[in-house]
TrEMBL record:
Signal peptide: none annotated. HAMAP family: GTPase_Der (MF_00195). GTP 1 binds at residues 9-16, 56-60, 119-122. SUPFAM superfamilies: P-loop containing nucleoside triphosphate hydrolases. The keyword GTP-binding applies. GO terms for molecular function: GTP binding; ribosome binding. This is GTPase Der. It comes from Desulfonispora thiosulfatigenes DSM 11270. GTPase that plays an essential role in the late steps of ribosome biogenesis. The gene is der. InterPro entries: G_ENGA, GTP-bd, GTPase_Der, KH_dom-like, KH_dom-like_a/b, P-loop_NTPase, Small_GTP-bd. GO terms for biological process: ribosome biogenesis.
Length: 437
């Protein structure tokens, strides 16, 4: 799992400037997905060949009426629970404030790695003020200017040094890792309990070493699964009950480790912006995606209700047409026994490999039916296609001019591939690569 680095500090010290500085433009996003809401809260960074995720906790929403100090404390608490490394940012121009001292107190108690960052230092001509920051008891300060990128490279060196080593997780390809994501109160725990049932053998509760997450391993028809704990399933403190952002972070972390994601929604609420964000992330990360509409027992139905509901969800999630939708009730157990059947099916589709000859035949027929786009007198030619990976299935299209490959044409080819080979429930990736004719 990617390590997590959280930026903490009171307002206006330069957290989001630092966030942008650390994450800006370093990682090329594989493909922008139209319709996926992007967020500045949570982004990947790379330094010295290590990839890690950075969170700007300033973006975490807390209760509307929380006072500033309460808000910062909640944000710091989340960082302490979730992050591997905490960057505590202070404004070097204003010096230490009462809020800074309060956060320091919290951070000093944690066993997590804390790096003290004194920002807005563009001028080192007054060394006397520099010593003041040692008094926080958080070790040697890192003096930087986030706005001008001064000393941020040294800061990144420090961060990378403190990241956990790569040995934390052994991935067993035979186990299906299942993330159950969704907003608070949609029924995630109820569904997990239903899935686990009485008859299922729970192999063990695996206490995660790094993040005290609790995973549940179980067997069904000789298939092993691990359900990854997400927001609220085992809530430790009451402090962030109302922070939806918190559940987003937990969901995203669970998705990182999963093969298949169940996005659970409440039938009464339908799909929300947060749901789109979470499932959009799963899609981008190449995870299997299943939409679970829970509390179906609470809906008054006629023979069109289900169909209309599905139509509405599909319209909201244009990039996710491949995802199965299932309507369930954790209370009446309606269709809940189908969930793992669909999970198995999606897991199989994710690992599906198709033969190169069959693939090329499908692509040739597709290009004959609907010729590739042209631009400035040049027409795109697809010379050869091959599947290079699974989980998610990934295809390389060798073409004469990759720039002419439009998103819409890729989408068309993707649909053709799906028509022939399935790949239900899993994103697939098409990469156009130049090959001289
Ligand atoms: N001089 C100077 N100004 C900076 C530096 N970094 C940030 N600032 C300025 O400080 C102000 C606050 O920066 P932000 O990055 O928005 O601070 P923040 O901590 O994210 O603030 P909140 O969103 O309120 O939590 C902006 O006007 C920035 O331009 C720096 O290195 N030097
Ligand atoms: N009517 C009905 N109620 C349900 C169903 N599933 C869950 N509930 C109720 O919804 C509430 C929330 O269920 P939980 O399983 O705790 O939801 P959760 O998503 O785990 O919630 P958090 O722990 O806050 O993340 C409980 O009161 C459940 O009894 C359902 O299918 N139908």
């Amino acid at each position: 799992m990617k390590p997590l680095v959280a930026i903490v500090g009171r307002p206006n010290v330069g957290k989001s400037t630092l966030f942008n500085r650390l994450t800006g433009g370093r990682i090329a996003i594989v493909e922008d997905t139209p319709g996926v809401t992007r967020d500045r809260l949570y982004r990947d960074a790379e330094w010295e060949n290590r990839i890690f995720t950075v969170i700007d906790t300033g973006g975490i929403e807390t209760g509307k009426n929380d006072k500033m100090i309460e808000r910062i404390k909640i944000q710091a608490q989340i960082a302490i629970e979730e992050a591997d490394v905490i960057l505590f940012v202070i404004d070097g121009r204003t010096g230490i404030t009462v809020e800074d001292q309060e956060i320091s107190l919290m951070l000093r108690k944690t066993k997590k790695n804390v790096i003290l960052v004194v920002n807005k230092i563009e001028d080192y001509s007054d060394p006397t003020t520099m010593y003041e920051f040692y008094s926080l008891g958080l070790g040697e300060p890192n003096y930087i200017s986030a706005a001008h990128g001064m000393n941020t490279g040294d800061l990144l060196d420090n961060v990378v040094e403190k990241l956990p080593k790569n040995d934390e997780e052994i991935i067993d390809p035979d186990i299906i890792m299942l993330a159950v994501a969704g907003r608070p109160n949609v029924g995630k725990s109820s569904l997990v309990n239903t899935i686990l049932g009485k008859e299922r053998v729970i192999v063990s509760d695996v206490a995660g070493t790094t993040r005290d997450a609790i995973d549940t391993k179980f067997m069904r028809n000789s298939q092993e699964y691990v359900i990854i704990d997400t927001a609220g399933m085992r809530r430790r403190g009451k402090i962030y009950d109302n922070t939806e952002r918190y559940s987003v972070i937990r969901s995203l972390r669970a998705i990182d480790r999963s093969d298949v994601v169940l996005l659970v929604m409440d039938a009464k609420d339908g799909i929300t912006e947060q749901d789109k964000k979470v499932i959009g992330y799963a899609h981008e990360q190449g995870k299997g995606c299943i939409l679970v509409i829970n509390k179906w027992d609470l809906i008054e139905k006629d023979d069109k209700t289900l169909h209309n509901f599905e139509k509405k969800v599909r319209k909201e999630l244009l990039f996710l047409q491949y995802a199965p939708i299932i309507f369930v009730s954790a209370v009446t157990k309606q269709r809940t026994d189908k969930i793992l059947e669909i999970v198995d099916y999606v897991a199989e589709q994710q690992s599906n490999r198709v033969s190169t000859s069959a693939l090329n035949q499908v692509i040739t027929e597709a290009t004959q039916l609907n010729p590739p786009p042209s631009d400035k007198g040049k027409r795109l030619k697809i010379l050869y296609t091959t599947q290079v990976g699974i989980k998610p299935p990934t295809f390389i299209l060798f073409v004469n001019e990759p720039e002419i490959m439009h998103f819409s044409y890729k989408r068309y080819l993707e649909n053709k591939i799906r028509d022939s080979f399935g790949f239900e429930g899993t994103p697939i990736r098409l990469v156009a690569r130049k090959k001289s004719e």
